[in-house]
């Protein structure tokens, strides 16, 4: 169990960061407004969580202009994808281990 717990990533403890990475794992790139609407969060809340993921180098931020307005979009990095996959795999192992333990108790 100790070996599995080493792959639980504290960065993904927060539901918003977990959700951001979940969205970015299945989409090549997602813009700020789309993420904000999907996650139902404020501008500031989303900005602080994307900044935390960017500081870990789990996502990259791209700013461009659409007409005269800035458009900020996010993309998961290879490092971020690896870290997220390891985190999810560890959670699944814990769940599967717990299910197996419960089944053993009932026998």
Automatic annotation (TrEMBL):
Pfam families: HTH_34 (PF13601). Residues 16-95 form the Winged helix DNA-binding domain. InterPro entries: WH-like_DNA-bd_sf, WH_DNA-bd_dom, WH_DNA-bd_sf. Signal peptide: none annotated. PANTHER family: BSL7504 PROTEIN. This is Helix-turn-helix domain.
